[in-house]
Amino acid sequence: MLKLYELNLNNIEYWKKTTDKYSAKTVFVKDKIDSFTLFLDKLGTPKSMPKSNGSYFIDLVSGRVINILEEKDFIIIEPSGIKVEKINLKKGVKTLDKAAKVLNQSRNQYISISEDIEYNTYFCNKIKLDKSIDEIPLELVNQEIINTRKGYEETKNYVEKFYESEFSPYDFMCLFTAINLSQKNLVFNEEYLIKFIRNCKNNNQFNKLLNDIHLKNNGIFDYSDNLNEAIQKLKIADILYTISPKNDASIYIFEKTKMAKLIKDRLDYFDEMVSFIANYEKYIKDIICQTDQQINQKKYIKTSL
Predict the structure, then answer these.
(1) Helix or strand run (H / E) with residue 140
(2) Phi, psi (degrees; rounded to nearest 5) at 43
(3) Distance between CA atoms of 224 and 210, rounded to whole angstroms?
(4) Could you give the angle at the alpha carbon of 133 between the alpha carbons of 130 and 134, nearest 5°?
(5) Collapsing DSSP states into helix, strand and coil, what is residue 220?
């Protein structure tokens, strides 16, 4: 459901993209706009986006996403840093109609101005602080954007190196093993398990359990390096074992395994894992049933001939 707002910007300073009358090059200069309205849809703070102290909005005309922070009686447009009174942000009245009119009549002008207000002002302020120039060439802004993106990717990669999953593939296998053991299910098929996980991911099921299990495909079948690593750890710990790994994907659970150490610190995921295993067992039964039907059909065809 759309949550539409209008942000009225009156007499604000920003960096405006324009053409230098002498060099004919595109530059940014500090300017003031008398009146301009952004048409916005409030996204809130989706889990898929970086944490924010404010709310995310999407510009209905340009499609850009901005973050709006609140500071007492003011709001701040991020990343540009432009600050206006909070009363300027109001719930929209016929906002979609107004946005549609802009799209039809002055789309390019709106997109250009809103880009300067929402994003380019941020980069220009950085360049101004560093170089103390009043007219900023487009090339400098573009380079600053490239540098910022590169810095973001480097930071993201650095953070990912030290990322600790709330429920890792190892946690998954520990709890999966413990509950199967409690139900006297002492064997499972790794290939079928991965197929079922793929099925769940395709249908957006059991995300809480499966979020950090990453599947790959070699062109023939799916596999998971991090799930396999978790299984190997449990083998080393004498909790799981295989009999003929080259010919059989069956993995066995040592019956004397102590369940308590596998369940410890994973109780928040217990009920969902019980549900996962119940659905997994049904999936296996369906596969066996389909296989039996195919075998019987082949036998029938052979005897008919």
Answers:
(1) helix 138-161
(2) -90, -20
(3) 12
(4) 135
(5) coil
SS3 302: helix
Beta bridge partners of 204: none
Measured in whole angstroms, the distance separating CA 200 from the mean position of its chain's CA atoms is 17
The answer to whether the beta carbons of residues 50 and 43 sit under 8 Å apart is no
What pLDDT band is residue 104 in, cutting at 50, 70 and 90?
very high
What mean pLDDT is reported for the chain? 87
Confidence (pLDDT) at 159: 47
Name the DSSP letter for residue 118.
I
Q: How far from each other are the two terminal CA atoms of the chain, in whole angstroms? A: 61
At 150, phi and psi to the nearest 5? -65, -45
Beta bridge partners of 31: 14
Structure tokens at 170: 């190892």
Q: How does strand 89-91 pair with strand 4-19? A: antiparallel
Residue labelled with tokens 């070699």: 218
Q: What is the DSSP letter of 48?
A: T
C-alpha distances in angstroms, 147 versus 44, 107, 132?
Answer: 28, 29, 19
Two tokens, residue 33: 């706009």
d(CA 35, CA 113) in angstroms, rounded, equals 11
pTM reported for the whole predicted model:
0.51
Highest mean pLDDT among 235-249, 260-274, 280-294: 260-274
Q: What is residue 298's predicted lDDT score, i.e. its pLDDT?
A: 54
pLDDT digits (tens, 9 = 90+) for 40-51: 999 887 766 677
| Of 148 and 236, more confident | 236
